[in-house]
Write a structure and sequence with these properties.
With 270 residues, this protein is of the alpha/beta class. The protein has six helices and 14 strands. The protein has a five-stranded mixed sheet, with helices on one face. A five-stranded mixed sheet has the order 7-9-13-14-8, sandwiched between helices. GO terms for molecular function: RNA binding.
Length: 270
């Protein structure tokens, strides 16, 4: 599958008439292919973008264009749709973000080309709450085999997050969170699948909580707690994530029988 990554957004640049400029950047996952173009803000629309994609795809056409910026997403979707190209929203546009950070823009000290506004976390809808949850851990060497061979309806294990590809020793303990969803288990798993989970973090406070980072900028409060024992477990969870290079997991199941699972995700602070 041929994957491109794209960003189309206003920059701290102006043309000779003082009009703000928008910049289109496109690259593949290895930056062996790159394409860039500028346009004045008055022309920054789906029609201009479509014409640029037509030029960029003269000799090759991707199967998917990945987009990390919410403000770029709808325009790129409109332009790509006319060419029959799928668009995937994802934070993990590593090559594109590296390229953006390496570029020189005016006011570089105050301008971060990959920064996105993060809204405050929102509680999960009440109808998705599980019966109970807990911290867990598995050795890196057992993680893939434990879940890859199970008949799990929703299974997300990206190649770049596999322990072997992160260079983790098989004995490293990979932390995770297990949610017993009861009757809502499958409904919760489907909701998570559509939300594109990225990471699940412990946030200290009054109360403390688990916050799910998902989609492009979304954050969701999965659980809150003040219990000292749970807080200690949460601190251990965070420390284990540091040792596992940010790798962790989320498992949703109907109950704790270990017989059936609804969804499993490898997550990463990457």
């Amino acid at each position: 599958m041929k994957i491109w990554q794209a960003d189309f957004y206003r920059r701290p640049l102006q043309d000779e008439n003082g009009q703000v400029l928008w910049e289109l950047l496109i690259c593949d996952e290895n930056r062996q292919f790159t394409y860039e173009a500028l346009c004045p803000q008055s022309a920054a629309n789906a029609s201009w973008l479509t014409s640029q994609l037509q030029i960029a795809t003269v000799n090759q056409q991707p199967d998917v264009i990945q987009v990390f910026r919410p403000q770029s997403l709808s325009l790129i979707q409109l332009a790509a749709r006319s060419l029959g190209i799928l668009v995937e929203p994802t934070r993990r546009t590593f090559a594109l973000k590296q390229w953006l950070k390496a570029r020189s823009y005016p006011s570089q000290d105050s301008y971060d080309p990959i920064a996105l506004e993060q809204p405050p976390p929102t509680p999960l809808p009440e109808n998705l709450w599980g019966q109970q949850w807990r911290f867990a851990a598995l050795n890196a060497g057992d993680l893939v085999d434990t879940f890859s061979q199970r008949p799990i309806p929703i299974l997300n294990m990206p190649e770049f997050l596999l322990p072997i590809n992160l260079g983790l020793a098989s004995t490293i303990s990979v932390p995770g969170v297990v949610i017993d969803g009861g009757r809502q288990s499958m409904q919760l798993a489907r909701w998570l699948h559509n939300a594109y989970p990225v990471a699940l973090d412990y946030v200290a406070g009054s109360p403390s909580g688990l916050v799910l980072t998902a989609g492009l900028v979304d954050r969701w409060i999965v659980a809150t707690f003040e219990d000292a024992e749970v807080t200690t477990s949460a601190i251990n969870y965070t420390q284990r994530k540091q040792l596992s290079k940010g790798l962790h997991f989320l498992l949703v199941q109907p109950d704790d029988s270990g017989m059936t699972y609804s969804g499993f995700w490898l997550l990463g602070d990457i």
